[in-house]
Amino acid sequence: MHVLITGANGFVGQALANYILSQGCVGESKVSRLTLLDRQFDKAVVGSSSLDLVVEQHSCDLADDQWLKDTLGRFSMDVIYHLASIPGGMAEKNDQLGRSVNIDATMALLDICKTQTESIGHKPVLVFASSIAVFGIMPDLVNDDTPLKPQMSYGAHKIVGEVMINDFSRRGWVDGRSLRLPGVLARPPAETGQLSAFLSDIIRELSLGHTFVCPMSAQAKTWASSLPNIIENLMHGAAVEESKLKATRTFTLPTLCFSMAEMVDAIGTVYQQNVKELVSYEPNPMIENLFGRFPPLETPFADEVGFKHDGDLNKLVERAVL
């Protein structure tokens, strides 16, 4: 099996690549080749696996259609994890960059899948990392029928990807699965352009006994999952049988809904210290509007095919910093 990961140097991409290298399979299929793409890499992963597995690592511009066609056309692909994206804040600041990666590169990958299917009759599985940013303004309950009203270009770009993956899957050119990821915890400190980084920072800082100024009120509610939970769902997303997907190719992943006060309590419980004294709340209206008004969530489509959340908030916090 040949597996491709775009955005392989990112927080989720690195974890996914390392998981595949450690396990050597996706579902019940053995991985023989792993291709990793990103703009740049912090370190080489080639040779880091003891398995009989060929690893290629390419620093590239995903907006370069011809390079993608030439490079990815050398070997047929079985599973593609399309994680590369320009996130919310960065996409707002640089519209052209956001569209070139979030939309154009997605279309280029879909066209490569179409060419492969038509030329050799082998349809690849494409797991697309969409986002809960597609919802934007939310009603009192979010479920599989909730209208999409994104408040940022990033969310709009993800909707375009979902729609095109559904259409290419309908036409038999790709076996697509779009997974709407929630916040993923806990990201290392870095300038990624993600406005939700404080959700990771609060766990890391409080766990170390540091003070923290929270940009949302104690009662503000959000959704999030641990990195290990997201990796488990991405692996399941590629392994689930196409016959079980029925009419939809888009799944809002099950996740936990909690207030910032509940998060602080969970951090205190897991790390066995009084962290409430370390937290002050200074709500930023824009941040709270984007990330602090999340209602309860129902995910029947995802539940039916076996996607899962962390279980409870203590487990999420425990798994978030490993």
UniProtKB/TrEMBL annotation:
Superkingdom, natural source: Bacteria
Gene3D superfamilies hit by this protein: NAD(P)-binding Rossmann-like Domain, UDP-galactose 4-epimerase, domain 1
Coiled-coil positions: none
Record organism: Marinomonas profundimaris
Segments forming domain NAD-dependent epimerase/dehydratase: 3-211
InterPro entries: Epimerase_deHydtase, NAD(P)-bd_dom_sf
Keyword terms, alphabetized: Carbohydrate metabolism, NADP
UniProt name for this protein: Epimerase
SUPFAM superfamilies, alphabetized: NAD(P)-binding Rossmann-fold domains
